[in-house]
Design a protein that fits this description.
mainly beta, 62% strand, four-stranded antiparallel β-sheet, five-stranded mixed β-sheet
């Protein structure tokens, strides 16, 4: 349905008490151009970090997942952040794809 490619956080790291954006680009396959929902699952080691789910609109080429670190979040890195993309193909087939991305939380 689509090939998804994660980008990098804008400044490379997520700073304590701040937000940062992770772009997710899409390459449409097999003439599909429907909506793709992105949901984020954060691992337990990213204490104090939240993420907003996003949607790649039909026909669009990207969306942005926004991460936020609390001022008292635990600094560190994780390569186990999972972004799951879900789309409905032909109105009845649910297709999912998982991407693993890395997030570093720093002072």
């Amino acid at each position: 349905v689509a090939k998804l490619t994660p980008g990098q956080l804008k400044s490379g790291v997520l700073k304590l008490g701040d937000t940062n954006e992770l772009p997710i680009k899409v390459e449409w396959l097999n003439d599909f151009a429907g909506e793709v929902k992105l949901t984020v699952k954060l691992p337990p080691e990213l204490t104090g970090v939240t993420a907003q789910n996003a949607t790649i609109a039909a026909g669009a080429d990207a969306a942005t997942v926004v991460f936020k670190a609390a001022a008292d979040a635990k600094p560190g890195s994780s390569q186990n952040v999972v972004v799951t993309a879900t789309a409905t193909y032909a109105g009845k087939y649910t297709v999912t794809q998982e991407l693993k991305v890395s997030i570093t939380v720093a002072k």
